Amino acid sequence: MAKALLGYVGGSDPRLLAEMRRLQQRVQDLESELVRIQTENDALNAAAAQQDESLLDRIDLDVPQAEPALT
């Protein structure tokens, strides 16, 4: 009876264990990829913010002071 229950529950099927190991490795690979992409994204956002600031500084230098509107 115990053998029948163990077989019914799933036991230690080598194919199932191999698939579970493969899936666990895939999850680890995807988590590593996510961390790498997040780090790259943070670096790109920082570079873009710095570039935006320098662009705004250059625009401010090129635009003369506004003159008062005529009333």
Describe the structure.
The radius of gyration is 30 Å and the shape is rod-shaped. The termini are far apart. It is mainly α and 71 residues long. The model has no long low-confidence stretch (mean pLDDT 79). It contains 2 helices and no strands.
**Beta-strand percentage range:** under 5%
Helix content: over 70%
- Tally of individual helices: 2
What series of H and E elements makes up the topology?
Answer: HH
As residue ranges, the low-confidence spans are none
Per DSSP E runs of 2 or more residues, the count of β-strands stands at 0
Q: Which structural category do the helix and sheet elements fall into?
A: mainly alpha
Distance between the termini: 99 Å
Profile the largest sheet: none
Q: How would you describe the shape?
A: rod-shaped
Rounded average pLDDT: 79
Radius of gyration: 30 Å
Please outline what is shown here:
The chain is an all-alpha fold and 71 residues long. Helices cover 80% and strands 0% of the residues.
Describe the secondary structure blueprint for this structure.
Layout: H1 2-9, H2 14-62
Task: Please tag this protein with its features.
71 residues, mainly alpha, 80% helix, rod-shaped
